[in-house]
Amino acid sequence: MSDIKDILKESGFRFNKQFGQNFITDVNLLGAMVSDAGITGEDTVIEIGPGAGTLTRSIANVAKKVISFEIDRNLEPILKRTLSDHGNAEVIFKDFQKVSDAELRSILDGGEYKVVANLPYYITTPLVMRFLESEYKPSSVTVMVQKEVAERFIATEKSDNYGVISLAIALEGDAKLTRIVSRNLFYPVPNVDSAIVNIEIRDKGIEDKEDIKKLVKAAFSMRRKTLVNNLTHTLGLTREDVESALLAIGKDVRERGETLSLYEYVALKDALSSKICRNK
Ligand code: SAM
Question: What is the pTM (predicted TM-score) of this model?
Answer without folding.
Answer: 0.95
